[in-house]
Design goal:
By secondary structure, the protein is an alpha/beta fold. It folds into two domains: about 180 residues, P-loop containing nucleotide triphosphate hydrolases (Rossmann fold, 3-Layer(aba) Sandwich), CATH 3.40.50.300; about 110 residues, Helicase, Ruva Protein, domain 3 (Orthogonal Bundle). Helix 2 runs antiparallel to helix 3 and helix 9 crosses helix 11.
Length: about 325
Amino acid sequence: MPDTFISKQKGQINVVLNQEEHAYDKPISDQKEMLTHHVSLEKIEEKLNHFIGMEEVKKTVREIYAWLYVNRLRSQYHLKTENQALHMLFKGNPGTGKTTVARLLGELFQDMEVLSKGHLIEAERADLVGEYIGQTAQKTRELVRKARGGILFIDEAYSLARGGEKDFGKEAIDTLVKQMEDKKDEFVLILAGYLDEMDQFMEMNPGLPSRFPIQISFPNYNEHELAHITNQMITEHEYKLTSEARKKLERHLKLKFNQHEKTFSNGRYVRNLVEKMIRQQAVRLLREGVPDRLALLTIRSTDITIEESKEKLYDAGNSHRDASMATQRGTL
């Protein structure tokens, strides 16, 4: 019962109940600005918005932030919080942004004080699997030690399950599972790889899927997104394409996309292609003599060297047609 105070004034009796404020009605911290301003989310979303596509990734990152934020608020008000693990699976082809997103998540988790450092340790099968008994567990534990306070990112993780009964890959998986439990609050594990292979990898161990509550798919960029990424990179490097070069590039990207090559590395391929264009332009300018500012800015179709035989045939056909048209115009 709350305390009751009775007072008499001019023949009236006033009863005042002491409305005591319970501790759980007020947050531990009065820093309302910290609770209402989402600086950490704004920082990571600003960086993610520079990436073309990746809508599911952006949505999932926002969900992760919202969950962490609400959990912190519930803790402030003495409410129960969920102790959900943040270990993740990234599924998609190379060059779709998996490593970049992992690095950004490290920054987010550090900002939100989920991880003390937020650094990224990248590893593959050779970094975990040893050549003799006992070495694999030792190597795996050492990687986890380096990743403490940050993220351990293992690419092509499904390769750990290959090699047969006598392979030490299974020992690496078992050691990782144990470290995930023993040090669940000290690091975040992200396993990455091709979509189908990662799904098969999860099926090999019934206990694995439940240990990775967050699974994000990184789809291939379509031809329009690839063209957009290329234009973005070219602009950032202060170059511009001629109309002929743009058409040749778009035709090439469309062909690459339609081929559905499993090894097609998406954004990584585009970055390498742009860098090659710049080198080819430099060679051409060296040959042509001292260039002016416009020449330094411009990438021509001849600076885009394509290896595919189909495109060579296409270009040869166009050249023959253009030459025929020129001859016809000359005789008119």
